[in-house]
Amino acid sequence: GSEVSLTDFRNIRLHQVCFGYPKMDTYVLEDINLEIEAGKSYLIVGLNGSGKTTLIKVLSGLYEPSRGKILVDGVDIRAFSKNSYRGNFAVVFQDFIHYPMSVEDNIKFGKYEHKEHTARMYRAAEQSGAAKFIHKLPDAYQTQLQNEWSDGTEISVGQWQKLAITRAFFADAPITIMDEPTASLDPVAENEFYMGIEELIRSRTCIMISHRFTTAKLVDQIIVIDNHRIRECGSFEELMCSNGKFKELFTLQAEKYNLGDVVNEAKLSTH
Ligand code: ADP
């Protein structure tokens, strides 16, 4: 296949995509129709096991659809080489740290050692707020490892999260995907994390997966996966107005995490 760079794509469309893992007789994704538009931000929500991670793996070309097709500006991605398509996605997982490398090396992981990379890495660290601790020595990680990331170590959980953000800025791919970047954080720290990536969310095509809804109001579109299908898709206001699954899940969660203000605000904005 030919090379493809998505630096100026308009949209990626999933057209009636189904996906099943080998040796399983049911699909994990069924009849997915979805459009990802350049420059917009998306949040994929849904219960555990509903198919969120599988969806981003199919979208980013890691798995091929069992049925249906994926089109970039109308061109089937099977026309492109797999690696060149995948290279357009920066996927940031929550547990990306490869200790005992230094902070710097963790961010640059997988990239060539190059002056230009180092300069870009510092810029990314400035943006994310990680610049202050970028020079921490590898032995800090050893300590961290022994203490199982407990309090009192040199690098806090919040700082590790900032590294995740730095890495996303640094990767600078046309599409940034974050799969549960805050799974280990409490709601307060999680909120801080998302405040840190507001710029990233607003400035590029960004897809996030979360089983929490902290970012729901930041993104352009929320995609609700339920029972392997897209159940709802729309902006926060649209989904709160439509009284469907999103509103049900959001309200439950708001009560659980005591996000009363958020819900009241949402209620007001729907009237
Ligand atoms: P989510 O991200 O919403 O938690 P996943 O996409 O990880 O959901 O998983 C969807 C379903 O696919 C689950 O039932 C899960 O058990 C199954 N699954 C995930 N990965 C594999 C795999 N490698 N092989 C077989 N089944 C899998």
Automatic annotation (TrEMBL):
It comes from the Bacteria. It is found in: Cell membrane. Residues 12-252 form the ABC transporter domain. This is ABC transporter ATP-binding protein. It comes from Paenibacillus rhizoplanae. The chain holds residues 340 to 610 of 610 of the full protein.
